[in-house]
Model the fold of this input.
Amino acid sequence: MERRTISAAAARFLAREEGGITALSLQIFMAALVLGGLAVDFGNGVASKTQLQVAADAAAHAAVYTRELHSPEEAKTAALEIAALNMPNGKYGSVLTAADINFGRWDRDAQLFTVDPGSRDAVLVSTKRHAANGNGVTTYMLGLIGRNNWDVTSGSVFETYYPTCFREGFHPWRCDESIPTPIPY
Done:
């Protein structure tokens, strides 16, 4: 008799529909939590990519500017100093090394960089935060499934440019090679 009472009570409990929404709400809450966590991880990765891009742009500009009148080593040192100011080693780890700075030539049409260590024409700078370097971008939600870091890389190419009017000497026209317009004095 006691067994029937327990199984009848269990059957009544399972047949009841009250509280069904609570289970559904719990599932929706968990799904929203997972999606929110993934959004935070993705946003953190995009923010890190932007920081790396800014550091690469600044370092490339410093390198190509310094390279105009100085040696490649001095230009690389200037680039490393600027990168360290943008992303300090103490906080982000080493995002740029001298090996990540290459001088050469940039072909705009082919979108191709050719390395030439003695060149003063262009520079390619690659910044990175990789787990192998010990400075990967930390994840939060993805850490639950074993993905503790993102590997994020960014790069920048800067080239020197001299308009024709700078190469040919002074003349009182604009240097954009459009319709000549006198420069106001």
User: Anything to note?
Assistant: Residues 22-159 form one domain.
